[in-house]
Amino acid sequence: MSQTPTTENSFARMQAGRPTGPLVQGYEVIIGFETHTQLTTLSKIFSRASTAFGAEPNTQASAVDFALPGALPVMNKGAVQRAIEFGLAVNAHIAEASVFARKNYFYPDLPKGYQISQFEIPVVQGGMVEFFLGDEKKTVRLVRAHLEEDAGKSLHEDFIGMSGIDLNRAGTPLLEIVTEPDMRSSAEAVAYAKELHKIVTWIGICDGNMQEGSFRCDANVSVRKPGAELGTRREIKNLNSFKFMQQAIDYEIRWQIEQIEDGHAIQQATVLFDPDTGETRAMRTKEDAADYRYFPDPDLPPLVIGRDWVEKTRAEMSELPRVMAARFVADYGLPEYDAGQVTQSKAVAAYFEAVAAASKQPKLASNWVMGELSRRLNNEEKPIEASAVGAAQLAVLITRIADGTVSNNAARQVFDALWTAEGADVDAIIEAKGLKQMSDTGELEKIIDDVLAANVKNVEEVKAGNAKAMNALVGQAMKATKGKANPAQVNELLKKKLG
Ligand code: ADP
Ligand code: MG
User: Fold this and answer.
1) What is the pLDDT of residue 3?
2) DSSP conformational letter for 135
3) Do 95 and 305 form a contact (C-beta atoms < 8 A)?
4) Residue 489: which pLDDT band, with cuts at 50, 70 and 90?
């Protein structure tokens, strides 16, 4: 399959038959993404200079990156390897022979006067990304992913009133991943971007560091009346946080609708999001592909990838997140949603599997990993690797829930104690805090009798058929046992006593 660059018309054709998305003030939102992922190679895409972040300006640029006359690019095999891995991860076609092209434009941080990219024949063609939006499964189709070099940076040194050029970033390998305009809301766009981020970090082709610019998204946004032709898009450049992504797209949607309602036509443009004002602002009117005078780069031969290389890569790749999630559904009986959540990263998946295997309670394991543990980690902005409660400890705790030793409520208190290192041993904490679930029915019955005697009004309401009053009684009884009773057992005893 060789693929010519997509045009607005072919995008429109490919949207035929896609369901209409949720409407905003009567408009359907259409979003397509272009994501620049910085590849994790140690050296640059066409030179041997280092790609490490944060060095002194121009200390990591070679003759090739400075575009000195006569310096020739040499393809970095590691960058190609990563492109192949990405293609396999998204079920795309890996081109047998792809072509590097010169994208011509002038900018101070681009000393050659052109960027080496891929145009007519990219290395990765087609493919798709699947993810959940709430409990709805979504598929976003990819058009392509192509290899290219990053540009340098202009540094505006206000204190000396001058600008300088830092070419350390010039030639850093990028894989630009382009979707069809398949997304229908800002929430779906963010969910796509998170899934893509998960894939590229999982397979290790990108470090995913958004602050450092390793994963930068451009969101193309347009609106239309349902059933109408695709509207004119504006492209929000360089979104480097999921929060800004959502804000920028939401602002852009409202802005476009307002323009159209006021009788203005949308002009194709490139815009920037300003987090301080929460607004998008036009940078330049959008150039077309023709403006770049693309042509094949005579310095680089076609990139030929033998099928043996593709197959060797396929065989050596570790289990992909969606394959692992499917296995969790099949082997552990997890709901698809849970399986997606516990495979959000390799570290989370490893933690979940350790808990599930040791406790033999996969559903409780996913509940706790997605619930209490995530909440704690989020609050303290910690990765799971830094969890204060280890998988082995959580497995023991879950075992105690499953065998009825502690209630869910009491287990939360044990978890808190484990987290704040009040103790490392689950059973010792249960003992010390007196959290053992009340299994003695005699003792429980006595407490329930007291509760019934003290809540005559509720008792009457229950007898009159008020279910809420029943909940109140259960609550009272649980409180009286300091959460140590089994709520189901309390319920049962109450029903028995109230007839
Ligand atoms: P470029 O921005 O380099 O000109 P393309 O024309 O290939 O690139 O399209 C870029 C992105 O814009 C793609 O992700 C595509 O899905 C998206 N796109 C195209 N048309 C629309 C549209 N009408 N509304 C929203 N997104 C669109
Ligand atoms: Mg673009």
Assistant:
1) 45
2) T
3) yes
4) confident
Q: Is 220 in the pocket of ligand 1 (CB under 6 A)?
A: yes
Across residues 182-188, what is the average pLDDT? 97
Of the ligands numbered here, which is closest to the C-alpha atom of 178? 1
Closest by CA to 239, choosing from 197, 202, 298, 206, is 197
Residue 5 CA to ligand 1 center (angstroms) comes to 11
Ligand 1: which residue has its CA nearest to atom 17? 32
Given a cut of 60, whether residue 5 has pLDDT beyond it is no
Nearest CA, atom 14, ligand 1: 32
**What are the pLDDT digits (tens) for 431-459?**
998 888 877 778 888 899 999 999 999 89
Which of 146, 217, 220 to mutate for ligand 1's pocket (most ligand atoms within 8 Å of CB)? 220
Look at residue 10 in the predicted model and tell me its pLDDT.
Answer: 63
Residue 381 to residues 200, 208, 281, 348, 375: CA-CA distances in angstroms? Answer: 22, 17, 32, 15, 10
Ligand 1 atom at minimal distance to the Cα of residue 181: 16
* Residue 56, both tokens: 């002194």
Question: Ligand 1 centroid to 287 CA: how many Å?
Answer: 12
Longest pairwise C-alpha distance within the chain: 96
> Rounded to the nearest whole angstrom, what is the distance from the C-alpha of residue 190 to the centroid of ligand 2?
18
Which one of 233, 286, 287 would you pick to mutate in the ligand 1 pocket, going by the greatest count of ligand atoms within 8 A of its CB? Answer: 233
What are the boundaries of each domain within the chain?
7-308, 319-433, 441-498
Q: Which is it for strands 114-118 and 215-224: parallel, antiparallel or unpaired? A: unpaired
Q: Which ligand is nearest to the CA of 287?
A: 1
Give the pLDDT score at 393: 96
CA distance 414 to 432: 10
**158/346 Cα distance (integer angstroms):** 43
Per-residue pLDDT band for 12 (boundaries 50, 70, 90) equals low
Predicted confidence (pLDDT) per residue in 224-274, tens digit: 999 899 999 999 999 999 999 999 999 999 999 999 999 999 999 999 999
The Å distance, Cα 119 to ligand 2 centre, comes to 12
Q: Is the CB of 208 under 6 A from ligand 1?
A: no
Q: Give me the pLDDT at residue 207, please.
A: 96
Give how far the C-alpha of residue 281 lies from the chain's centroid of Cα atoms, to the nearest Å: 26
478 pLDDT tier (thresholds 50, 70, 90): confident
DSSP bridge pairs for 30 = 222
The secondary structure of residue 148, as a DSSP letter, is E
Kindly state if the Cβ of 230 falls inside 6 Å of ligand 1.
yes
Decide: 416 in ligand 1 pocket, CB within 6 A: no
Question: Residues, the chain, total?
Answer: 499
The topology under which CATH files domain 441-498 is Arc Repressor Mutant, subunit A (1.10.10)
CB of 6 within 6 A of ligand 1: the answer is yes
